[in-house]
Amino acid sequence: MRITKTTFNDVFSNDANGSIIKVEKYVDKKCASVFEILTYTIIVTNTSRYKTGNIFFKDYISKYIEFINNTVKVNGIIKRGLDPQQGFYIGRIDASCKKIISFKSVVLPNSAHRIIKNSANIYYYYKCNLDKFPTRISIESNRVYTNVNKIVFKQLNISNTLKAPKKSKRYIKK
After folding, report:
1. Whether 100 contacts 41, CB under 8 Å
2. How do the domains of the chain map onto residue ranges?
3. Which of 22, 32, 106, 135 satisfies CB 3.0 to 4.6 Å to 45 for a cystine?
4. How far apart are CA 44 and CA 64, in angstroms?
5. Which of 49-58, 139-148, 162-171 is predicted with the least confidence, judged by mean pLDDT?
6. What is the pTM of this model?
7. Share of the chain above pLDDT 90, in %
8. Closest CA to 31 of 126, 130, 113, 128
9. What is the top-level taxon of the source organism (predicted)?
């Protein structure tokens, strides 16, 4: 038996434009005061049947907030030294899986009476044809908004409370 008139196709994806990553962004507060801490959460989902790699994350932080160092978490694990404004690689995402990125920022005094807008970007390379170089894909997340109140000071509850030392018993001799 002999096979003839065969065409080989080296396209290995069923998605012509390479849109295989979904990016969603959330903020924990819709309203905040100056010096309040905001937590941003970004969910990056691989919607394809293939593992993706070399995924780069970057956040465009508003001039009305400042990133708090060493607060970046990827899938719940603290990643010291990473800065969302500079961007960083989040590695591979298995098929139909996701990575959750979070970080904290503080509301600056120049933000009073303002709306803080924030979004993030994911960059990755997608190769839809083995004969061609990969295409760089950029996906922007949805925008999230926080209204900043006029109030400059807010009462904060401190979660790390100190315990008073135990009283030592002193015996007085009569």
Report:
1. yes
2. 21-148
3. 22
4. 25
5. 162-171
6. 0.75
7. 57
8. 113
9. Bacteria
Q: How far are the Cα atoms of 5, 12, 131 from residue 8, in angstroms, in the given order?
A: 10, 11, 12
Q: Give yes or no for a contact between 41 and 125, defined as CB atoms under 8 angstroms apart.
A: no
> Checking DSSP bridges between strand 77-78 and strand 88-93, what pairing results, if any?
unpaired
- Nearest CA-CA partner of 37 in 156, 151, 142, 144: 156
Per-residue pLDDT reduced to its tens digit, 51-67: 888 899 999 999 999 99
Separation CA 7–CA 16 (nearest Å): 19
CB 56 within 8 A of CB 125: no
The architecture in CATH of the region 21-148 reads Sandwich (2.60)
Is pLDDT of 12 > 50? no
Q: Taking the CB of residue 93, how many other CB atoms lie within 10 A of it?
A: 21
Parallel, antiparallel, or unpaired for β 135-140 and 73-74? unpaired
